[in-house]
Amino acid sequence: MGVIVKLLLAFGAGWALLVGAQHLWTTAMVEQVAAAARQPAPLPQAPPVASIEINPEELRKALAPPQIDTREGERLGVESAARQIDMMRRNALSHVPVYGPNGLPRH
Question: Which domain holds residue 16?
Answer without folding.
Answer: 1-38
